[in-house]
Amino acid sequence: MTEAKDSEEAVPLEMAPDEILPAEESAEVPAEAAASPQPANDLADWKVFRLAVAALGIVIVAFGAFSLFAGVKGLPDAISESNATLESNYRFFAALLVGVGAAFVAIAIKFNWANVLIFVCATIFLGGLARVLSWAISGLPNFLMILLMIVELVIPPVIAVWYLWINRTQKLRESYRGMNTVPKQ
Predict the structure, then answer these.
(1) CB of 182 closer than 8 Å to CB of 25
(2) Burial profile 76-103: b = 16 or more Cβ within 10 angstroms, e = fewer
(3) Which of 55, 156, 162, 164 has the greatest number of C-beta atoms within 10 Å?
C-alpha cells in the first residue's frame, strides 16, 4: 500500500504477507485490486533502501559521538594546547552531527517522514562543500578530512537519487497496474 504525500511522493507502508499480490495474475485486474496491494518487489526496493539509510545514520551518529566525546584532540593533526572556544564550537557541531545521523535513522524507521530525506541529504552535502571551501582557503587538510569530504559530496546525492528513482518506478508500476490489463508475453 502507499500513502500519498502533499508533495505527491508515494511511500510504502508495512504490509502483511497475505496482502501482497502473487506474481502471476490473470489478464484483467479489477480496479480496486490494482490500486491496493503491492507486489513483493516494490517492498524489497524500499526495504534495501531503508536499511542503507539506517546504516548511514548509524555511521554518522557513531562518528559524531566520537567527535563529541574526544573533542578536537580526536582529530588527526590535533593541536596540543586546548582552546576553550574551539573545543566548545567543535563539540557543538559534533552534537549536530549526532542529530543528523539520528534523523537518518528516524527516517528509515518511520518511513512516512521520507520527504525530509532530501533536506537532510542536502545538509550533509552542504557540509562537504564547506570542507571544499576550507581546503581552498586554509590549505590541504588531513587525509581523513579529504575522505570525509568525498563521502559527504557523493553519498547524499546517491541516496537522494536512489530515493527519487524508487519513488518514480513505484509510480510507474502503479500506473501500469491501473491500466487493468497485463500485456501478453
Answers:
(1) yes
(2) eeeeeeeeeeeeeebbeebeebbebbeb
(3) 156
